[in-house]
Design a protein that fits this description.
187 residues; mainly beta; 4-stranded antiparallel beta sheet; 1 helix; 10 strands; globular
């Protein structure tokens, strides 16, 4: 009887362990999440001579995949989350100025209203949204109109990077054959 009991306990334990080992991980997302920092190498190298981050943008990177993006996938004149999936978030590690308006350090959402020749870039207080479906204009911190720059080569995956001139960090958004730049003054 002890042998049967021991066998039953051993089989039960083996089955339980095997059942716990089976984890179904989600497949790779079609629009993987990425992060851009200003200064660009602020967190990639831990050296004392590398500056601390001032701005961090977390966003999902959809691809063109042969589609017409602006005016079709992303409608002109409509709010867009600047990416895919959850809305894009931007963190300012210290106070900045955007469009002449002071923006306090903290986390915000980044939205845009694309048009053919200009975009309205929006910094908004609301966080943790899926896309722009629950966007609330009353929570806007700042809105800035920026010109569209057309490029000749397709930028396959939505990309966000920073360029610098003096105390201005230009947040550059590029996708398909379009780029825009949002000047952010850093003190």
């Amino acid at each position: 009887m002890k042998k049967i009991y021991l066998l039953a306990v051993t089989l039960f334990a083996a089955f339980t362990v095997q059942a716990q080992d089976v984890v179904k991980f989600a497949p790779l997302d079609n629009s993987p999440v990425d992060i851009s920092y200003f200064p660009n190498k602020a967190v990639k190298f831990k050296k004392t001579d590398t500056p601390n981050p001032v701005i961090k943008v977390t966003y999902a990177r959809p691809s063109v995949k042969g589609r017409t993006i602006f005016g079709d996938v992303v409608k002109f004149g409509e709010i867009w989350r600047v990416g895919a999936n959850e809305n894009t978030e931007i963190k300012f590690y210290k106070d900045v100025t955007i469009g002449g308006k002071k923006v306090a350090a903290g986390y915000y959402s980044l939205f845009a209203i694309p048009e053919k020749d200009k975009w309205t870039i929006i910094i908004n207080k609301e966080l943790d949204l899926w896309g722009g479906y629950a966007y609330d204009e009353k929570k806007d911190v700042v809105r800035v109109s920026v010109p569209v720059k057309n490029v000749s080569d397709v930028i396959e995956a939505l990309s966000i990077a920073f360029t610098t001139k003096d105390s201005v960090a230009n947040l550059v958004i590029g996708w398909d054959k379009t780029t825009v730049e949002l000047p952010i003054t850093v003190k």
